[in-house]
Structures are given as structure tokens and as C-alpha cells.
Amino acid sequence: MALTGAVTRVLLWPSLLKTLGIMALIEAVFLAEVFEGLMNEVLSHGGRIRSLAWLLLLNAPDIAALALALALMVALFFAISDARSRGELLILASSGIAWRRVVGFALLLGCAGGALAWGVAGQVVPRAQLAQQVAVATLQADHLRDRIIGRAPHRRVQSFDRMTVITPENQGHEPPPIFIFEDAQNRQWRAGLSPDWAITAPEAGEQHRLVMRALVGYSGRLTSGPTDNMTIDSFRTDSATFAFAMDTIVPVPVPQRPVDLVSKQKTPTDLLARILLVPMAALAGLVALLYSGGLARFVALPLALLWVMVMDVAGRGILSAAQLPFGPLVVLAVIAYLAPPLALIAAKGEGLMTPQRAAP
């Protein structure tokens, strides 16, 4: 078998270790690209380092399937190249082990990677995307709640449903004055101004309370005619208290639901493309190795990387647009992904086992 015996002892651990290292590097580059945006998101809502770390972790699976394909291709290229340079594959060949065993090893390792890519793209990524939405919504809700009860800096203008709250820049007042405007029903409106106010924490079973002292209030009705005819009522009071439910102002993040998870699921054709890309990339690594003689050694691996990335984009697009039953589509996709690299390997397969001659 391709995954048992001498070929496995020579190639398995070097291939796996190199795959993990290269995949970690690709993920690090990807996360570095999104780091600034996530950091700004967290800081703008008063989040902490653990919130940023959690969002970075939830973003990691997005590119994991492609990173696995690229990492496996590069890892096999160097693992087989090293074993060939040390003469280990030549020794295996002299003991009767054919080069097809190495191809079989790479293909089965790629199929195992394809199964892992299915698990990541089909199961982990949808859940991570939903968890990221919940994490961001929770971060925003916590920051809004902190602003309301005074644990975070106030914004000058805040809107809650039909109510607008304005708190000007703090110029020695603690807290600054508050102006509230409410667009009530039936074209009615109400407004109030208080220079001394506070929000009290609720007791068990009670609501939050907004206490406004030296309150000046106004109310009226919007008219379509001249404003001269508008009647505005006003009142003054030493203190006024308004109870409110925090949940009506701050949206409560909705936990993950099965219906939300279904909306994030990849299509079967997209999953098929993700699965087949990994064994195709493993074979592309062997193609790059076989055709890397002479000056081609400088471009063989980059071209193989380009080949895999083009197949990732074009393959998903073509499979999604194909108007075929899924069964025949799977067969044609397997041929399209695997037949070209297998044909190129078959043309020069003997070269897998023999050390490459040094360039003059």
C-alpha cells in the first residue's frame, strides 16, 4: 500500500511537518492582512486583547482549505526532493519499489487532506463565521451598554429607535448636560434638557432608571403649515425619573441557530472544488519536481503555485455554473482536476527516484 512500508517511513513525517509549518506561515500572512481592520473594530468598541485574539482565531478557518492545498504541494516538493537528493528513493527503487508508490503516497495524502478540507470548509468555516457575527454584535452591545451607564466615553449624538440623545463635549461638567428628543407617535414630539443627570443600576427585577434634575421639558405636534401656528408646551421640574429596559435600547446578540448555520453552508459544488484541490495540489508538487531541471528549477514551483490558485478560482466558478446532475459532475471534476497532473507525472515518473544531476 502507498501509505504503508518504506515510502511512508521516508516521506510521511517530513511531509507532515513541512505542511504544518508552511500552513502556519500562510495563515500568519493572511491574519496579518486582516489584523488592522479587526483591531480597529475592537478598539472602536472598547474591546480588549482577548476579543481581538478571539476574532483572529475565528478568521483563521476562512483560508485554511486553500492554505492546506498550497502547503501540502510545497511540502511534498521539498520532502521528496530531499529524499531523492540523499539517495533514499534510489535505494528504495533498487529494492524493487516503483515510482508509482511515491505517486500513490502523494495522492492518498492529498485525499486525506481533501477530507480535512471538507471538514474545514463545510463544517468549521460556517460555524466560525456565525461565531464571529455574534462576537462582533456582543462587542458592540457591551460598548453601547457601557456608554449608556457611564463606564465608557459618551458620544455626542446617540440614537435609540425613535429617541436621539445629545451630550455635548465635556467642559467641566460631570457628566455633561443631556438633551433628549423623542419622535413620538402621531407626529407628536417631546424633548428635555437636564444639566445634572445619572443612570442608576437596577435592583433585582427592576429596570434601569434615568434621573434628570433641573429638567426643562418641551412637547408639541409637527405641522405641515407655518411654524408660527405650532403650539409648544413647556414645563420645569426639580427632578424626573424615567424607567427603561436596557434590552429595548441595546440589541441582545442572538446565539447561533440551525437556520443561521444553513445560510452559511457552502454549496455542494464549492465543497467538491475544495476537496479536489488538495490532491490536485499534491500531484502538482510532484509535477514541479519532475520538471524542475536546468533553468526550469527557478520557475517550476512558482508556476505550480499559480496553477493551483487558478484552479481554485476557476474550478469553483465552472463547477457552480455547470448544468449537470451532481453524479456526472463529480466524475468530470475528478478527471479535470487529477488527469492533467497524473499525465505529466506518467511522462517522467522514473525521475522521482533518481537524484537530479547538478547543473553545470
Plain-language structure description:
- This protein is of the alpha+beta class and 360 residues long.
- 58% of the residues lie in helices and 15% in strands.
- Strands 1, 2, 3, 4, 5, 6 and 7 form a seven-stranded antiparallel beta sheet that branches.
- Strand 3 and strand 4 form a beta hairpin.
- Helix 8 (268-290) runs parallel beside helix 10.
- The longest helix is centred in the middle third of the chain and has 51 residues, at 99-149.
- The radius of gyration is 32 Å and the shape is elongated.
- The two termini are 38 Å apart.
- The relative contact order is 0.13.
Spans of at least 5 consecutive residues with low confidence: none
Portion of residues within helices: 55-70%
Q: What is the N-to-C succession of helices and strands?
A: HHHHHEEEEEEEHHHHH
Distance between the termini: 38 Å
- The count of strands amounts to 7
Question: Which percent band covers the strand fraction?
Answer: 5-15%
Radius of gyration: 32 Å
Number of helices: 10
Largest sheet: 7 strands, antiparallel
Average pLDDT works out at 84
What structural class do helix, strand and pairing data support? alpha+beta
User: What spatial form do the alpha-carbon principal axes imply?
Assistant: elongated
